[in-house]
């Protein structure tokens, strides 16, 4: 082993240890507790020494988000694979697993899904690729979706960004398949899924909601019928 490769491995191990400590602080005390000073104290080094590994607290949190998304993507992939090849079953499995994960990991959910991103950070992540990977082959076949009973707004800009996201995730979907109703279909599912889960995680329903799981299941069935998957 060369001196250079040994240093690289030691650096990678230290970076991982820093992120693991940051994640433990996040889970135990929330994002406000994740500071370079607190992590340095746990490592027995000075806070300025951490700048050799991360440019700032924000840089550390960005990479921590990537770790969380990677772990979540792995979990959701496993749920998807466990139910076979039927499209609706795979979508339902991933949606249910996402809700379970969010309720079990509220601080991680808040960091990843309730923290505004600056413009240069807006890039596809491992989490998003799970949903694109499930729906991509379905769209590539040219399967028709239910058209909304109203005129859609101009979604051309979203078509371009969606095509880029599929490409970045390594999913081959012909540009012709990304019709306006397809963009609307994906946005509709994500907005409803995220909206319900966020309201439930943060306790922001406008009343004391009993049996939120039943409402969630009803929402999935409703979306299935509304978008023509049933």
From TrEMBL:
Pfam families: TetR_C_33, TetR_N. Signal peptide: none annotated. Keywords: DNA-binding, Transcription, Transcription regulation. SUPFAM superfamilies: Homeodomain-like, Tetracyclin repressor-like, C-terminal domain. Residues 35-54 bind DNA. Residues 12-72 form the HTH tetR-type domain. GO terms for molecular function: DNA-binding transcription factor activity; transcription cis-regulatory region binding. PANTHER family: HTH-TYPE TRANSCRIPTIONAL REGULATOR RUTR, HTH-TYPE TRANSCRIPTIONAL REGULATOR RV1816. This is AcrR family transcriptional regulator. It comes from Saccharopolyspora hordei. The lineage of its organism: Bacteria, Bacillati, Actinomycetota, Actinomycetes, Pseudonocardiales.
